[in-house]
Write a sequence for this structure.
C-alpha cells in the first residue's frame, strides 16, 4: 500500500521552487532547468541578485526570484520544494515548506544534529508531507549491482569501506572539528545501510590527525559498527592520504557465507562464490568464480540506464509524488544515517562504545525540550521510543497528502 497520496496530475511536470542558489545550488538549478519531470517555477535566496546571475548563466533568466519562500511559492503555484541551503538552514526552510503544504527534497545532511532531524520527522508527520533527504551517492548503477550481489552472499559477516583522498578544500572544511566524520562519512554510513538492509546498533570509533595533515580537526578515523543483523561494518578513512587514492565512493568488500564481492566505487563490482554454494544459475551475473556483471535492473535507487547522483535523487522524489511510494531517503529512515555520524563522534570523544539507541534517546529528549512548533511537540511527546517510532514510520501504510490545488 502507498504511504503518500499522489499529485492531481501525475503526468504533468512538478512545479518546483528551489531554495538556495550557491555552489551546490547551481548544480541543482542546472538539473531542474533541464528536467522533463519538473518545472523550475522559482528560486528563493537571501541574495536575489546572486540567484538571478546563476539563472542567467544557465539560460534560465525568466525564472522568478524572491527572498521569501512563502510569498514566491504562493505566487508561482509551487507543488514542491528543493532545499539546497546550508545545513543550518535546512530545518527552518523544511518546516516553512511543510506548513505551506509542500513536500521537500532536501540536500544532505537532514540537519546539523540528530535532535533537529527528529524535529523534522515530527513536522513531516504533523503536516502529512514528504521530506526526502538527497543522499546522492546512493544513486550509482554499480552500487545497485553491488547490493544485488550482496543479496546473493547469504548471511553477511563483514562489510568494509576504505576511503582515502587528499583534497585541499581551503575555507571552512579545513577548520572543522571531526571533518571526515561530519562532512563525508555519512555517504558511506548511509550506503552501508542500503547495501545490508540493516540498521546500526552500536559503534566504536577512533579519530586522529596525521602529523602532515593540513586540517585543524581530525581528518582520519576508523569506526566499527554492529548492525542489527549481526554484521560488522568497518569504515576506515583519511582526507589527507596522498597517493593511490580511492574513488570518492571508497573501496568496498563484503563477505558472506556464500562468498565475497568487491567494488572500487566506480566500475562494476566483482564477486566470487564458494564452490557448491547451491545458488541457481544467474545467467553470468555472479557465477561461481570472479565475474563482472552488467547493470542490474529493478533496483529502486539506480536501475539499469537510470539517472545517477542528484538526478537519481530527483527521479525518486518525483516518482514518490506521482505514485505515493515511500522514497528511500524519507526523513524517518535517514535519521539513522545521521545518528551513525553523531554516535561515531561521541565514541571518539569518550573512548567508549556508543549505542545508537542512546544517541536517539538523548536527541529525543533535547528535541522535545526545545521544540517550538506545537504540532511537532505533540508528535515527539507521543514517541515512547524514537528508534521504534522511526522504524514504525518506515513501514506505515497510512497515506498522507502531497496533493496541491
Amino acid at each position: 500500500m502507498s504511504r503518500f497520496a499522489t499529485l492531481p496530475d501525475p503526468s504533468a511536470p512538478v512545479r518546483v521552487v528551489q531554495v538556495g542558489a550557491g555552489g551546490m545550488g547551481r548544480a541543482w538549478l542546472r538539473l531542474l532547468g533541464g528536467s522533463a519531470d519538473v518545472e523550475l517555477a522559482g528560486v528563493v535566496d537571501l541574495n536575489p541578485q546572486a540567484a538571478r546571475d546563476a539563472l542567467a548563466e544557465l539560460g534560465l533568466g525568466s525564472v522568478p526570484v524572491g527572498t521569501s519562500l512563502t510569498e514566491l511559492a504562493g505566487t508561482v503555484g509551487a507543488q514542491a520544494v528543493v532545499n539546497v541551503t546550508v545545513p543550518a538552514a535546512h530545518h527552518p526552510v523544511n518546516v516553512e515548506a511543510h506548513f505551506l503544504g509542500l513536500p521537500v527534497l532536501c540536500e544532505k545532511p537532514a540537519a546539523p544534529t540528530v535532535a533537529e532531524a527528529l524535529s523534522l520527522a515530527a513536522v513531516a508527520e504533523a503536516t502529512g508531507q514528504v521530506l526526502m533527504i538527497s543522499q546522492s551517492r546512493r544513486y550509482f548503477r554499480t552500487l545497485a549491482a553491488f547490493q544485488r550481489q550482496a543479496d546473493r552472499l547469504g548471511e553477511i559477516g563483514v562489510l568494509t569501506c576504505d576511503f582515502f583522498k587528499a583534497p585541499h578544500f581551503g575555507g571552512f572544511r579545513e577548520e572543522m572539528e571531526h571533518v571526515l566524520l561530519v562532512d563525508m562519512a555519512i555517504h558511506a554510513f548511509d550506503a552501508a545501510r542500503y547495501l545490508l538492509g540493516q540498521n546500526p546498533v552500536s559503534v566504536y570509533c577512533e579519530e586522529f590527525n596525521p602529523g602532515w595533515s593540513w586540517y585543524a580537526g581530525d581528518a582520519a578515523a576508523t569506526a566499527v559498527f554492529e548492525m542489527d543483523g549481526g554484521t560488522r561494518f568497518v569504515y576506515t578513512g583519511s582526507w589527507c592520504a596522498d597517493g593511490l587514492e580511492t574513488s570518492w565512493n571508497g573501496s568496498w568488500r563484503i563477505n558472506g557465507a556464500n562468498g565475497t564481492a568487491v567494488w572500487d566505487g566506480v566500475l562494476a563490482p566483482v564477486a566470487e562464490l564458494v564452490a557448491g554454494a547451491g545458488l541457481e544459475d544467474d545467467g553470468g551475473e555472479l557465477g561461481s568464480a570472479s565475474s563482472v556483471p552488467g547493470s542490474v535492473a529493478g533496483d529502486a535507487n539506480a536501475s539499469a540506464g537510470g539517472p545517477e547522483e542528484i538526478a537519481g535523487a530527483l527521479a525518486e522524489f518525483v516518482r514518490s509524488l506521482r505514485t505515493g511510494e515511500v522514497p528511500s531517503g524519507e526523513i524517518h529512515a535517514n535519521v539513522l544515517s545521521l545518528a551513525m555520524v553523531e554516535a561515531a563522534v561521541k565514541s571518539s570523544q569518550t573512548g567508549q562504545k556508543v549505542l545508537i539507541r542512546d544517541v536517539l534517546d538523548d536527541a529525543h529528549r533535547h528535541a522535545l525540550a526545545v521544540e517550538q512548533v506545537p504540532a511537532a511537540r505533540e508528535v515527539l511527546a507521543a514517541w515512547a521510543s524514537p528508534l521504534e517510532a522511526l522504524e514504525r514510520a518506515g513501514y506505515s501504510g497510512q497515506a498522507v497528502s502531497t496533493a496541491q490545488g
